[in-house]
Amino acid sequence: MFKTKLTAERLRDYLMSLFLILSCICLICVMIGFFRMFFPYVNATEWDLLAFIGSVIAAVVTVMGIRVPILSQRREQIKLKYESILKQLILASKSTRMILGAPNYKFYDDNGDIDLSLTLEFQAKYIHDYIEEVSKFRVNLIESMDLVRFEHMEAELRSFARFQFLYENLDVYIKVEKISDLFVLSIREYLDRAIALENFFIEYQNEILQKYKQLIDEPSRGLFKL
């Protein structure tokens, strides 16, 4: 279990809750004063004033009784949502994290020079496999990921459309006497895009994990806030 810390944000929430409670008490006192001012003939011994105070207190208790379960239910729903996202990202990362190391893998010929054909073929296969894996698990993120991030992910995946053509014709590009510099730059560009997309998933996972920890650290933030 994560340790609870009295952060500045949490202290501010406590002070805000205390301020609102004191404001409600002051408002009740003012209402009682106005009630006595406009209805001076009311006799407290006849329980009219006590009945009024009791009705106000009952209304406050009713609001609290409704709001607290609603907030608790919403917190539980958010917690389950975060858990679902984290599980999906963690499972997917087992096969997608490898793209981060793809630029470091190089093949050499008998003379000790980089074998450009094998290296490009290896990197292209890594990119292709990465796109396939992301395309599979993206379906599971439709319901849980927010719209802005989901659209960013979709835009990045759409940017690999031309790569599919390059990959399908890979033999044409690499099995030649001199590999085109444009093809080399294209593979490197798509590899950089794949790495950037994976870093996007890492940042998103860390952000969701931080929010999930905050829910665990602060199981109840009061009546007025989640």
Automatic annotation (TrEMBL):
Keywords: Membrane, Transmembrane, Transmembrane helix. It comes from the Bacteria. The chain crosses the membrane at residues 14-37, 49-70. This is Phage abortive infection protein.
